[in-house]
Amino acid sequence: MSVDSRIMDALLPLGYEVEHGTYTGDTASTYFTFNYQTLGIDFGDDAPWHERVLVQVHLYSKLNVNLTGLITRVKQQLFEADFTWPDVTDISDDTWRHFEFTCETAQGIVHEAEDETVPADPGTGTPAQNDSPEADGDPAEEGASNGNS
Amino acid sequence: MATLDSSQWDEFALSMSDLANMPVSVLEDMILAEAEVIKEAQSTEAENMLQGPYYAGGVAKAVHINRPRRSGGGVSVTLTFKGSQHGNALGEIAYINEYGKHGQPARPFINTANEKKADTAVEAAAAVFDKYLAEHGL
Does B91 contact A at CB distance below 8 Å? Predict the structure, then answer.
C-alpha cells in the first residue's frame, strides 16, 4: 500500500477532507493536507534497499473550532497506521489554526531483478548457448539494459 | 593458563585526566563543524525545494551560523536566516516554506536537510575530536 493510501486511510475516518499538498476546495472549515519526503537508506550494491518517509500532516481549521479531541485522534490514527507517534507543533496564525503532525515510516524498495536467465532458443526450446563472440556484447549496453545503471 | 596483566594504570589515569580537562574550545569547534555541514545542506535543499515563480535564491544564501553558546555544561549553536527579500524577513519566508500555510503547501527543506546530513554532521564533529585526541597522544 502506498504512503498516500496509508495516510488517507488513517485520516478519512475522522470525517474531514484530506488532500496531498494543497487543499483545493474552498468551503471546509476544517481539513487535512499532507506531504512527505523520502530518503534512501540501507545502501548495498550501489542502491538503497529501504527509504525513510518523513511525513508532515497538517490540520487546518477556522479559529472558532475546538480541536482538542481531534488532535489526539489524529495522533492515534497515524500511529495505528504504522507511522511513528507524531510530534505536534501549533503553528497557527491570526486567520487559521494550523497544527503540524510530524512522523515517519519506512518502506522497502523493490529493484528490478537482473535478468540472469538465458532466453530460450525459439527453434529448439532449449536455452541458447551464450558463448558466441556476439553474446559478449558491449558492457555499456549491458549496464544500460539491466535497469540498475 | 591465561594470565591477566594490568599495567600502565598511571598513564591511563593521566589520559582520562587530560580528557576531562579538554578545553571548551574543542567542543565549540566540534559543534561548528556540525553546523557547517548542516548550513551547506540547508542551502542546497533550499535551492532544490523552493523553486517557483517567486524564487530569488534569498533563503538559500541567507543561512547563517551564530556564535556558539555555552549552555548546561555543553555548547549549542543556532542557524538563522539573515536578511530580507520582497519586503519580508528571510527567516519568515523560510518558516512559511518549512511549515506551509492555508493555501500554500509546506516545503520542509530544513528538516529534509537536517535528516539527510545528520550522520555526516556527526562525523565532522568526530573528526575534530579525533584530531584533538591525536594531538595530545590520547
Answer: no
From the list B100, B103, B108, the residue facing A37 with the nearest CB is B108
Q: How does DSSP assign chain B, residue by residue?
A: --------HHHHHHHHHHHHT--HHHHHHHHHHHHHHHHHHHHHHHHHH--STT--SHHHHHEEEPPPEEETTEEE--EEE-SEETTEEHHHHHHHHHH-BTTB----HHHHHHHHHHHHHHHHHHHHHHHHHHHTT-
Q: Is the pLDDT of residue A127 over 50?
A: no
For the question of an ipTM over 0.95, the answer is: no
Residue A67 and residue A48 share a domain:
yes
| Reported pTM | 0.76
Q: Is B100 on the interface with A (CB under 8 A)?
A: yes
CB of B88 within 8 Å of a chain A CB? The answer is no
pLDDT over 90 percentage in chain B: 66
pLDDT for position B7: 76
In a domain, B8, yes or no: no
- Nearest-CA distance from A113 to chain B in Å? 27
Chain A hits for B101, Cβ within 8 Å: 93, 96, 98
CB contact under 8 A, A96 and B101: yes
Q: Check whether A116 has a pLDDT greater than 70.
A: no
State which residues form the domain around A41: 3-108
- Indicate whether A148 and A100 sit together in one domain: no
Examine the pLDDT at B24 and tell me if it is beyond 60: yes
Q: Is B70 a member of any domain?
A: yes
